[in-house]
Amino acid sequence: MNKKVKELIKGSDKKTLAVYFILRFFVILVMIVQIFHHNWQDVFLCFLTLILFIIPFVIDRKLKIDLPTPLEIIILLFIFSAEILGEIQNFYGQIPYWDTMLHTINGFLCGAIGFSMIDILNRNEKLHITLTPIFVAFVGFCFSMTIGVLWEFFEFSGDYLLNMDMQKDRIVDSVSSVYLNEEGKNVPVVIENIDHTTIYYRENNEIKETTISGYLDIGIIDTMKDLLVNFLGAVVFSVIGYLYIKNRDKYTIVEKFIPVMRK
To answer: What pTM was computed for the model?
Structure first.
């Protein structure tokens, strides 16, 4: 193991280290398999996952911020679930609502991180500021939604520039569009009960066609669904965070998800 990595993880909680080494082992195993199959994009994803695994330890050691053990474990499992299981093992396509679950968790976690950053400043005696609980919770919510939007920008860029189809397509049986209005009016034309769609395309100077049942929605439904569940996750933590600030002794369980600045 690299000496710098050893230094970063030194002194970490035993449960966190156990999860880290187990997941790291599986990622390296998957990487070796992908190398044999010459799937270089998946090899890159494995390498990226190993780097992302180090982020919680970097935050702890370099930024002097204590991440609660449950939060660290959830972050590690989230990265593994998204990159290795979701992308390489195609859980996104094989398991219903896998993507929805991860985006909901992402909204919750980012809400916790945004909330904690403001709460740390709010409790810092040197800054001489006092923010209301509702404002702290609202900032945590806004931070979570901002991260969600930025991720959708990233997915769109991957689709537009690299043809990755990160914003998954979906089959629908109806469309509503002003583009179909023959008179050029700003009045949508609704087409329902679409049985199938035939797509013609050119490949090697030869016209080919493929037929799908219904109509192909190119990522808009998936994007809005992701933002909606991110919204729900952010709202849930914002409410919990608000209650925690109002009564820290009663809602101590929240502390398991909130990073704190090391004194």
So the answer is: 0.85
